Structure to design on (125 residues):
């Protein structure tokens, strides 16, 4: 075998390995983050049951105020948040962006924030 053929095969193996690495999510755009916002219903089934929720975060800049939704992923803690729709929450989890540009958060832990005092309740879940 010629050296150029060996190099081509080696490059092909490296390319395939990197593709597998990225597709398995090991190299995707993910980061641990803490966000604070209001839990909002974003999707309903045919019987008007809520089947999708997000944490709506208000982001203020000099010129504008924008609401950014973080869709809550299917984790144990994320499922618990269905009980707190319209409540303010501080959530910690892995944030990622899907192929459509939507932000997702896989919640690891959260704290419900009291609406009366805007202070955290004693129980962190």
């Amino acid at each position: 075998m010629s050296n150029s053929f060996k190099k081509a095969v080696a490059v092909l193996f490296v390319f395939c390995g990197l593709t597998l690495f990225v597709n398995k999510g090991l190299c995707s755009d993910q980061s641990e983050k803490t966000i604070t916002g209001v839990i909002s219903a974003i999707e309903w089934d045919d019987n008007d049951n809520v089947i999708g929720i997000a944490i709506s975060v208000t982001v203020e800049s000099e010129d504008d105020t924008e609401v950014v939704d973080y869709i809550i992923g299917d984790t144990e803690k994320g499922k618990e948040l269905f009980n707190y729709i319209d409540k303010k929450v501080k959530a910690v989890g892995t944030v990622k962006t899907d192929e459509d540009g939507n932000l997702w958060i896989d919640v690891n832990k959260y704290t419900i924030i009291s609406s009366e005092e805007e202070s955290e309740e004693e129980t962190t879940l």
Summary: DSSP finds two helices and six strands in the chain. The helical segments are 3-23, 76-80. The radius of gyration is 21 Å. Residues 5-27, 119-123 have pLDDT under 50 and may be disordered.
